[in-house]
Design brief:
Elements: E1 12-13, H1 16-22, E2 31-35, E3 38-44, E4 50-57, H2 68-74, E5 85-92, E6 99-107, H3 114-120, H4 129-149, E7 164-166, E8 172-174, H5 180-185, H6 201-204
Parallel strand pairs: 1-5
Antiparallel strand pairs: 2-3, 3-4, 4-6, 5-6, 7-8
Protein name: Protein kinase domain-containing protein
InterPro entries: Kinase-like_dom_sf, LRR_Rcpt-Like_S/T_Kinase, Prot_kinase_dom, Ser-Thr/Tyr_kinase_cat_dom
Membrane topology: Single-pass type I membrane protein
């Protein structure tokens, strides 16, 4: 699988200062939603690239080294039919250097969910049957990549139509993964509203 042929920058470590600048110090205007898998923010990097940032508060005290096997898996989540991972950032406590928060940075997908295009409709455009079939094939290819394109594979996603986002070219991208890091280490902070159905990124882009 050629992960470098997606037009995406290389996966990298972001600094907290970069993320603060991209979100105006995590201002409420950049806030996209909150759920059991953390808080979501929309940001803009210095080069103009828009990003989606998931903030996870750790409930267990571990060093950065303990999370590297999770980061290695996340760094592989780069596919034309996934909301691809761009990088991560660790925030650590001053006293013992254990991780207090992890920020996961993903590409920003601006056109809302597949459900909103099919069920709710858009006044300016609706999907043709060819586009709907293309979206279904794209989702299938994304699932195939999660199952067989990375090691270990990512399974049991409980995928919903609200978890499928459409990019500027109406290419379908899976936005929710069943990652061990999210399930095992993130604090529960309310109802699940991940970067998917109940958050329409286009509202934040205006």
């Amino acid at each position: 699988m050629k992960l470098g042929a997606l037009g995406l920058p290389a996966y990298r470590t972001f600094s907290l200062e970069e993320l603060e600048e991209a979100t105006n110090n995590f201002d409420t205007s950049a806030f996209m939603g909150e759920g059991s898998k953390g808080q979501m923010y929309r940001g803009r990097l210095k080069n103009g690239t828009f990003i989606a940032i998931r903030c996870l508060k750790m409930k267990k005290s571990h060093s950065t080294r303990n999370f590297m096997h999770h980061i290695e898996l996340i760094s592989k989540l780069r596919h034309c039919h996934l909301v691809s991972a761009l990088g991560h950032c660790f925030e650590c406590y001053f006293d013992d250097s254990s991780v207090s928060r992890i920020f996961l940075i993903f590409e920003y997908v601006p056109n809302g969910t597949l459900r909103s295009w099919i069920s709710e409709g858009h006044a300016w455009q609706s999907l043709t049957w060819t586009q709907r079939i293309s979206a279904a094939i794209g989702v299938a290819r994304g699932i195939q990549f999660l199952h067989t394109g990375i090691v270990p594979g990512v399974f049991s996603n409980n995928l919903k139509i609200t978890d499928i986002l459409l990019d500027q070219n109406l290419v379908a991208k899976i936005s929710s993964y069943n990652l061990p890091l999210l399930a095992e280490n993130a604090e529960k902070v309310g109802h699940v509203t991940p970067y998917s159905g109940s958050i329409n990124p286009t509202n934040s882009a205006r």
